[in-house]
Amino acid sequence: MLAGRRVVLGVTGGVAAYKAAYLARRLIERGAVVRVVMTESATKFVGPHTFAAITGSRPVVDLFDAEDVSPHTTFGRWADAVVVAPATAATLARLANGLSDDSVSATVLATAAPVVIAPAMHTEMWQHPATVANVERLESFGYHIVSPEAGALAGGDTGLGRLADPDRIADAVAAVLPGGPLTGVEVLITAGGTREPIDRVRYLGNHSSGKMGNAIAAAAARRGANVTLVTAGPGIEHPRVTIIPVDTAAEMADAAWAIAKKAEVAVMAAAVADFRPAEALDGKLRRADGPPTIDLEPTPDVLGGIAEMSPRPFLVGFAAETGALDEAIAKARRKGVDLLVANDVTAPGSGFGTETNQVTIVLPDGSTEPWSLMPKTEVAERLWDRIAELRKREGTST
Ligand code: CTP
Q1: Is 46's C-beta closer than 6 angstroms to any atom of ligand 1?
Q2: Interatomic CA distance for residues 331 and 325, integer angstroms
């Protein structure tokens, strides 16, 4: 969602400043027009000419030495979004207190556009109560913080504090800009494999990694949707994705059914256990007691519950199959979905835990559309394109 959007990139003085050049490049690759403001100390780590070459425009460093008499207000008004990356601890403190004594803080103070801040510093500085309080204050202004990652830091040590990946920061910039095709649309997604307790330490589970559901959630959020991701898997960080972590099918059902009432689209990508132990042991099953007999009972059908709602969201089901498509075609009719994504989890490069997937779209009329093997992220994008076409045909605008 960055095509033609105007982004001011503020670079401050940390060793991660060199990565801001990659961020500028990523933003431009996504279609944004980028202008750079830098602090004096940022120029000790990366030269203004690097940004001039990448963006086609000379960065503003000294507010008093620019051609424009008031570059911070000009940039502040021009920007559709402002992103500060890397933001040092000193910059966070400056911004949290409304100071405007360098080109970056002055630009942030002078803008009404959404602001994204990607801090980078040593772990001790990031975890210092002063920084924690500054970050909270910045969030209370409505600024979006792209939290740093764990990894190698300057000086040879490792820990939390490394600048987030430039793609993550670019995602956050895209997310704060209104205007995607799913803007304002409430989307429910289930993901991951549920875990049904046998005793306090063991469970019945499956091989689902949650990657497909996460990719679908990220793609919807990128298009402007407000996403609720009910997941038994790892989840994702995105300003427009709310995560509801669950373990069991029953927990997933409770959360998903509540959200489905206000959702316009529901995508059921979770691998939900169909059966659970009728009684989970409070303690631990002991080896000495010999092999247990475990009675199973059915779990709630999360998708089935949503299919019965009236009105109900546009409903997408998944079917993990291990062979021919006949069962998926029957399922598409039986389950009351608008679209079923069938994948053969035994096919090479497809299914649980892989980065790629080969799926076939099955519609309730029995028609099938096999898609070639592609990254799960690409499947997610194409799925939203297909959902948009079908919803348009039904008379909904997105
Ligand atoms: N599903 C669900 N709740 C369940 C079981 C499945 O919401 N308790 C959803 C899945 O998220 C998926 C779809 O239903 O979107 C189909 O799941 P699948 O396990 O393939 O369907 P089943 O009806 O359980 O069929 P099968 O006989 O193959 O087990």
Answers
A1: no
A2: 10
**Using one digit for the tens of pLDDT, what is the confidence trace for 207-262?**
999 999 999 999 998 888 999 999 999 989 887 899 999 999 999 999 999 999 99
Band of pLDDT at residue 341, cut at 50, 70 and 90: very high
Question: 66-70, 172-176, 300-304, 369-373 — which one is most confidently predicted on average?
Answer: 300-304
Does 320 sit in the ligand 1 pocket, CB within 6 Å? yes
Domain 6-175 matches domain 186-391 at the CATH topology level: yes
Domain boundaries, the chain: 6-175, 186-391
Distance (Å) from CA 230 to ligand 1 centroid:
15
Long-range contacts of 51-56 (CB under 8 A, 24+ apart): 51/9, 51/11, 51/20, 51/21, 51/24, 54/21, 54/24, 54/25, 54/28, 55/24, 55/28
> What is the per-residue pLDDT across 279-327, written as a single tens digit (0 to 9) for each?
999 999 999 999 999 999 999 999 999 999 999 999 999 998 887 889 9
Write out pLDDT tens, residues 85-127. 999 999 999 999 999 999 999 999 999 999 999 999 999 999 9
Percent helix, strand, coil in the chain, to 5, is 35, 25, 40
6-175: which CATH topology? Answer: Rossmann fold (3.40.50)
Query: Atom 4, ligand 1: which residue's CA is nearest?
Result: 301
Q: Which amino acid residue places its CA nearest to atom 29 of ligand 1? A: 274
Q: How far is the CA of 49 from the centre of ligand 1 (A)?
A: 56
Residue 206 annotated in active site: yes
339 lines ligand 1 (CB under 6 A): no
Fold for domain 186-391? Rossmann fold (3.40.50)
Q: Are 341 and 378 in contact (CB under 8 A)?
A: no
Q: Is 279 a pocket residue for ligand 1 (Cβ < 6 Å)?
A: no
Ligand 1 atom 16: residue of nearest CA: 319
Q: Atom of ligand 1 at shortest distance to CA of 274?
A: 8
